[in-house]
Design brief:
This protein is of the alpha+beta class and about 425 residues long. The longest helix has 18 residues.
Length: about 425
């Protein structure tokens, strides 16, 4: 859930995939997390205290083939329900299996360093996507009534909630300890644990979100208005992004490699469909000078030719062609080669002699160049370094080194 272009919040597939890829990488580089199970209905149980309007018991679940925690609460007050008092310090990643029966809210109360009063995080099956009122932050976790795993980073959830407020104070909140859990509504809980990190669970949460939300076109529509430039037409909700497609493919191919489950590679293969559909017809493919194929991060009219999003779309295709069988990956390989040809031909149009350019609106619209700020320029350098490592093309190696030198103050020669 992001509030980048809409304060009410929306699902942004680019950031969901970036979230998954980040956790996949961290799992490779960080040490094993600390994990403590607080409730599994069997060997690890806690004394959940019901109030007079609620009850809690352990029952056998046929699907899980084990005991789980069943809770029932009357009324609508989220502060009522079976509760568990805690004193957890240092570890703030929450994971639990949940089966919703009706109107469930899991409330986590924490003390913070910056505030005197506790902050209450509510994970609700029925609510607005994300909202904050006073010391209460609510996230919608959906009404799916099947067993599912919920993963939440409490620090990130608090900071994102506070970022919704207009106040510039205390947006960086530090948790002192978790003090209470409250179960509200009717549902079942299992495998409730708190850990220092949970990277692979978060990675699979990202991959499985992509599976659930891929549409018949193989894409993940972005449901928000986007205006890239005053002289470009507004993209209405439902537009596709080649960067989103590429990132998603990178997540799905890694999930397939880790699990060997066909559902992931099939979704990745389906995601290439939009690369073949012109942006004027609802896809992401543009043409430069009617010669070079370009996969648009923003399928604007006229085309904008954003550099970093295009390269990310190529990286996804590379991951797919290297992961799928030769027969299944044939289309991805062709799309990748077409894009690589375009990049080699067009890359110098993004070089200012002192930095790089974000897109080609200066050529399309006849206006001043949209210079890449330094963080985007650094991204361009890193992307070219990656391409140089896998393609051994001199243009990528030479250009990445020259562009990196711009960050140290070097400039192209003048006449």
């Amino acid at each position: 859930m992001t509030t980048q272009w809409d304060p009410s919040g929306y699902f942004y597939p680019i950031q969901i995939s970036q979230f998954g890829l980040s956790h996949f990488s961290k799992n490779l580089t960080e040490k094993e997390p600390r994990v403590k199970i607080y409730e599994d209905g069997e060997t690890n149980t806690r004394n959940w205290v019901p109030d007079k309007e609620s009850k809690v018991e352990r029952v056998f679940d046929a699907e899980k083939k084990s005991n789980v925690l069943k809770f029932e609460t009357k009324g609508t007050n989220q502060a009522r329900g079976p509760s568990l008092s805690l004193n957890v310090k240092g570890d703030y990643v929450l994971t639990f299996d949940l089966k919703v029966v009706n109107n469930v809210t899991i409330t986590v109360s924490v003390e913070t360093v910056e505030r005197e009063r506790p902050i209450h995080l509510h994970y609700a099956s029925q609510s607005a996507p994300i909202q904050m009122k006073g010391s209460h932050i609510t996230y919608n976790i959906g009404e799916n009534q099947s067993w599912r795993t919920i993963n939440r980073d409490l620090v990130a959830d608090i900071r994102k909630g506070i970022a919704l407020t207009k106040s510039k104070q205390n947006k960086k909140i530090n948790i002192r300890k978790i003090i209470k859990i409250i179960l509200h509504g009717n549902g079942y809980l299992d495998n409730f644990k708190i850990s220092s990190s949970n990277h692979m669970e978060n990675f699979y949460a990202s991959a499985d979100w992509l599976l659930r939300n891929q549409d018949m076109n193989g894409g993940w529509p972005i449901m928000v208005n986007r205006k890239l430039d005053e002289d470009l037409k507004v993209l209405p909700p439902g537009w596709y992004s080649a960067m989103a497609q590429g990132h998603a493919i990178s997540v799905l191919t890694r999930a397939f490699t880790a699990t060997h489950k066909r559902k992931y590679i099939e979704a990745a293969l389906h995601a290439t469909k939009l690369y073949t559909i012109p942006s004027t017809e609802g896809g992401v493919k543009a043409r430069f000078l009617d010669t070079y194929n370009w996969y648009e991060e923003y399928p604007t009219t006229p085309s904008s030719f954003v550099l970093n999003g295009f390269i990310y779309s190529l990286i996804g295709l590379y991951d797919l062609k290297m992961t799928a069988s030769q027969e299944e990956g044939r289309d991805a390989s062709q799309l990748y080669n077409d894009g690589l040809r375009s990049l080699k031909a067009m890359l110098m149009m993004y070089d200012t002699g002192s930095g790089s350019i974000y897109d080609l609106r200066h050529m399309v619209l006849g206006k001043a160049p949209n210079l890449a700020r330094w963080d985007y320029h650094a991204t361009h350098c890193q992307q070219l370094m990656l391409l140089a490592s896998i393609e051994k093309e001199p243009i990528f190696d030479v250009t990445s080194k020259r562009w990196m030198s711009y960050m140290k103050g070097k400039r192209a020669k003048h006449n």
